[in-house]
């Protein structure tokens, strides 16, 4: 077999596997595994380690913050060529509890699943996370209806808007507001 064909075959053996970790230890496991790969010279068998995250806008106390949120808490993706040695290195990394698969045999992810996860991670616009729920009492803190209280009627995550039913002049009227224009009423 030519050298080029040999390299192609090697590249074809690369698959993505999912490892289960202690929740909250995903980044530590990634760092530990990358260190073990370097110290045990496994770069030719274990290629990439990813903690799938996405940017999210969190609104807390009227402040907008961008945070990286783990898409799959407790899981880390590893691109590797599965051999006894590579399995041993990954499986015995501190914080790794197991591979995801049937019995002792790790099951590789489908290429489409991996592409979907990577696309989700590279998403252009961060998602907005709000703590409002339909039917919840809120107070308007900005705009022409400042200090009015109302009930959340609908939440539009795509546009970052919330529709609040506000009562004035004895009638309920829907008012569309930005997430930052309302705050939860403490009950």
TrEMBL record:
InterPro entries: KOW, NGN, NGN-like_dom, NGN_dom_sf, NusG-like, Rib_uL2_dom2, Transcrpt_antiterm_NusG, Translation_prot_SH3-like_sf. Residues 131-158 form the KOW domain. Keywords: Transcription, Transcription antitermination, Transcription regulation, Transcription termination. GO terms for biological process: DNA-templated transcription elongation; DNA-templated transcription termination; regulation of DNA-templated transcription elongation; transcription antitermination. Residues 13-121 form the NusG-like N-terminal domain. One of its GO terms (cellular component) is cytosol. Participates in transcription elongation, termination and antitermination. Belongs to the NusG family. This is Transcription termination/antitermination protein NusG. It comes from Chloroflexus aurantiacus (strain ATCC 29366 / DSM 635 / J-10-fl). The lineage of its organism: Bacteria, Bacillati, Chloroflexota, Chloroflexia, Chloroflexales. The gene is nusG.
């Amino acid at each position: 077999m030519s050298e080029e064909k040999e390299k192609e075959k090697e590249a074809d053996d690369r698959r993505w596997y999912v490892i289960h970790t202690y929740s909250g230890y995903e980044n530590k496991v990634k760092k530990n595994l990358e260190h073990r790969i370097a110290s045990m010279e496994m770069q030719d068998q274990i290629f990439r380690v990813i903690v799938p995250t996405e940017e999210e806008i969190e609104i807390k106390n009227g402040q907008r913050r961008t945070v990286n949120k783990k898409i799959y808490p407790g899981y880390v993706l590893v691109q590797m060529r599965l051999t006894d040695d590579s399995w041993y290195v990954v499986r015995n990394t501190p914080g790794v509890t197991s591979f995801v698969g049937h019995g002792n045999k790790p099951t590789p992810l489908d290429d489409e699943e991996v592409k979907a996860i990577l696309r989700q991670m590279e998403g252009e616009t961060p998602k907005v996370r709000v703590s409002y729920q339909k039917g919840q009492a809120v107070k308007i803190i900005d705009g022409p209806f400042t200090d009015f209280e109302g009930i959340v009627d609908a939440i539009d995550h795509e546009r970052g808007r919330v529709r609040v039913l506000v009562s004035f002049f004895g009638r309920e009227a829907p008012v569309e507001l930005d997430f930052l224009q309302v705050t939860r009423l403490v009950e």
